[in-house]
Amino acid sequence: MHKFFIRSFVSSLVLLFTFTVAAIAKDVKAAFVYIGPTGDHGWTYQHDVGRKAVEAAGFKTTYVEGVPESADAERVLRQLANSGHDVIFTTSFGYMNPTNKVAKEFPNVKFEHATGYKREHPNVSTYAARFYEGRTILGTIAGTMTKSNIIGYVASFPIPEVIRGINSFTLAAQKVNPNIKTKIVWAFTWYDPGKEAEAAKALIDQGADVIAQHTDSTAIVQMAEKAGVYAFGQASDMDKFAPKAVLTSVENNWGPYYVDRVKAVANGTWSQKDTWHGIGDGMVVISDLDSQMPADLRSKVKKLQADLASGKVHSFTGPIYDQKGNLMVAEGKTADDGMLAGMMTYVKGVEGDIPK
Amino acid sequence: MIKIVKRDQPSRAIFFFTPVLAIFLTLVAGGLIFFILGFKPFEALKFFFIVPIADKYGFSELLLKATPLCLIAIGLSFCFKSNNWNIGAEGQLTFGAIVSGGVALIFYEQEGFYILPIVILAGAIGGMLYASIPAILKTYFNTNEILVSLMLVYVSKLILDYLVVGPWSNPEGFNFPETRQFSDSAKLPLLFEGLRIHAGIFLALAAVVISWFVFYKTYLGFQMKVSGFSLKTAKYAGYKGKKMIILVFLISGACAGLAGVGEITGPIGQLHREISPDYGFTAIIVAFLGRLHPVGIIFASLVVAITYLGAETAQIFMQIPKYTGQVFQGMILFFLLASDYLLFFKIKFIGSKK
To answer: Mind telling me how many Å the CA of B60 is from chain A's nearest CA?
Structure first.
């Protein structure tokens, strides 16, 4: 047993040495860990588009797809950290604890975790996008385009990220059309075309003529296309999957951030950060607006987009009331990031309760 | 001329040879697939089957991965040997993990030597309870255990979803779907510093030894074997079929529950939505590849475990899509079932007549 420890100590010293030498001598290499397949046309697909931007900027990249959030994540991370990668992007919430655990063992490797909140070591950063800004745009379009005044919304999990999106969407829709109701179906999945299509069908059967989604597959827009109602693409431009139904999409644009961070590693200027970028920084992008939308709506959306980018308009501007009529944000005020990060109540106009 | 002749009785030698043949054919077919995909087949196979376990850490990961597979497959072999088709080990694993995780959460922020045994026991009981549902429905209501056990898998996953999203979610966790981390007293001890292999492996090894003893040295084992060959014979011999059915399901459920405990109190350390990458289903392949024999199952669990590790390594170093790992698992089972043909038939080469 004693011999074993000495041997492992020596071998880890050798490893450390080769690792340090390698880090100085060679170019920066970035690794990406994905929850789904790169061909999902949603969450993972967009992260992979970001990875390709890093490649285009002249860096070497590696990726591992379909890594479950089970005990396997830790092994994949350790293997990547051990095989000469200088920065590792872990692109799903469930990698939070493994990321921090492995980061402790590899202080010379930088870790970037998407959508989490734990930064337990100086070599861990977190990043996320203000998707709710994109949902303000979608809400504005949905409120204008609906005839039944019922808007459907397929949600994934009752976490602040999703509740925030529902609220932002509903507030914007109410602003242009005070009579609308947002009906929610919880799919309890991020990616399951079968379940998502079923959820969309249920909403359409209840009279919804515009469907929004916070799940990643193209099943919902395709269901909307079949039923002749409107929908919005999620994560990537889904127009080609349902040209008649999709009015626009909110695209996750990770490329600029990834290139920026990998360059920072190369220059030695990388430091721990918690990034939350929106339309203004280009992390959230609105796809082309469909020609079925009236011209005045299109120009209104363009202006709103510019105002959200400049900060002139905030998605959560008071007065905002919750479902019971209690004031959440006072008139003239905007919700701060702390409130947004922990948002777990629906605003007025959303139907139903948050599953508990 | 080639002629196919039915064997008088299944060949014992072929019985243990076909798994090896299946693995060999899988390697050949795998190499062919790599070649078609545009990769060098031998290099790809090397990254798939040799590189991942070439160092101490890799080997420990192999054992870590094989532990739940072996444990579940041993449990399943009790069912499969006696003609009970328990397809729902994944559900029993999940429910075992729920019960033991719940107990671990009760002891949150407490330390004590007595905590871990209670947590482990809770997991075994959870798995047994969950496996008793298809068993009781089968014995007393004549339902099909394949359907019942399979459907209960999805029920258990929904229960887990509900708990980690709602009542059991970490109060400091911003409503993300996960529980608190378990205290150290509720976690299985690690065997070596810096490696993830934990004491759960002893549970698997104990299961192997016990199952061997039961199968080959006890009356119960004999009853199971007879029931496996012919239910009518078993009835004629006067065996109490119902008792045995329930017993094998309970054993199987306990093993799957323990595998769940090993995951959540081992490398994961908390409950969240994805505690098992379908170990309960993959273990079915392991059980059959191991010929329902305890020693066979050890080897089979190592072989199948390596397909997981290899898929990761092959993607990191050669950019081979990771899902080829699942293709390999599928191929092993396919070739095994296909080569079982040789059990009952033999191929005769007959010289052409003049």
So the answer is: 11
Cross-chain Cβ contact B277/A74 below 8 Å:
no
pLDDT in tens, B212-261: 999 999 998 998 888 888 878 888 888 877 888 999 999 999 999 999 99
Task: Residue A164: count other Cβ atoms within 10 Å of its Cβ.
Answer: 23
Contact B219, B195 (CB under 8 A): no
| Contact between A157 and B267 using a beta-carbon 8 Å cutoff | no
**For B2-349, which CATH class?**
mainly alpha
Please state the domain extents for chain B. 2-349
Residue of A6, A64, A78 to mutate for B, most B C-beta atoms under 10 A: A64
Query: Residue B344: is its pLDDT beyond 90?
Result: no
* A303, two tokens: 């202006």
Q: Does A338 touch chain B (CB under 8 A)?
A: no
Structurally, how many domains does chain A consist of? 2
**Final residue in a domain of this structure, among A75, A96, A129:** A129
Each residue's pLDDT tens digit, A16-44:
544 444 444 348 999 999 998 898 888 99
| ipTM here | 0.85
Q: Is the domain of A143 the same as that of A117? A: no
Judge: B196–A75 Cβ closer than 8 Å, yes or no.
yes
Q: Are residues A174 and A300 in the same domain?
A: yes
∠ CA B312-B314-B319, nearest 5°, is: 105
Which pTM does this prediction carry? 0.86
- For residues B325 and B89, the answer to whether their CB atoms sit within 8 Å is no
